[in-house]
Amino acid sequence: MTVYRTVMVGTDGSASSFSAVEAAARLAAVCRAELVIVCAFVPMRGRELAVAQDQLGAEAYQVVGSAPAEDTLRAAGDLARAQGAQDVRSVAVQDEPVAALVRTARDCAADLLVVGNRGLRSLAGRLLGSVPADIARKADLDVLIVHTT
């Protein structure tokens, strides 16, 4: 049996992804593995950014750059430690989710990549692709798709 030394999990801040974080954290705790929590983000630009800044005023920093991803990572890290994970690292990556997760898994030499199943069975997921399905196809390491929905 493979012993996982580095378990990586993706989160987007949704309840479903936080369930995947908790499952990955429990596994990392049992394996005494490092847990790497990754949140991909694509910064707002142009009109979308201008509208957000106009509506949010002084609070606009919350949607600019990596701020939302950093908030998500803080919450995910707290959940992971509550599940017993000891060695937790968080990484915000500017890219689309699949590319960010596959590249970061390679960069941190992850043994296992954990994602939730959200979008896997939806019509949009079947037509457009879903993060868990694309990860399973593109990652060159073990992938655990956690039933979170």
Describe this structure as you would to a colleague.
The protein has helices spanning 15-31, 46-56, 67-82, 97-107, 123-128, 131-138, and strands at residues 6-10, 34-41, 88-94, 112-116, 142-146. It has 6 helices and 5 strands, in the order βαβααβαβααβ. α1 links the parallel β1 (6-10) and β2 (34-41). The protein has a 5-stranded parallel β-sheet, with helices on both faces. It has 149 residues and is an alpha/beta fold.
Please outline the helices and strands:
Blueprint: E1 6-10, H1 15-31, E2 34-41, H2 46-56, H3 67-82, E3 88-94, H4 97-107, E4 112-116, H5 123-128, H6 131-138, E5 142-146
Parallel strand pairs: 1-2, 1-4, 2-3, 4-5
Kindly state the number of beta strands: 5
Strand-residue proportion: 15-25%
Strand order of the largest sheet: 3-2-1-4-5
Order of helices and strands: EHEHHEHEHHE
Number of discrete helical segments:
6
Largest sheet: 5 strands, parallel
Q: Give the termini separation.
A: 28 Å
Parts with pLDDT < 50 across at least 5 consecutive residues: 59-64, 120-129
User: Globular, elongated, flat, extended or rod-shaped: what is the shape?
Assistant: globular
**Helical residues, percent:** 40-55%
Mean pLDDT: 82
| Helix-strand makeup class | alpha/beta
User: Rg, please?
Assistant: 16 Å
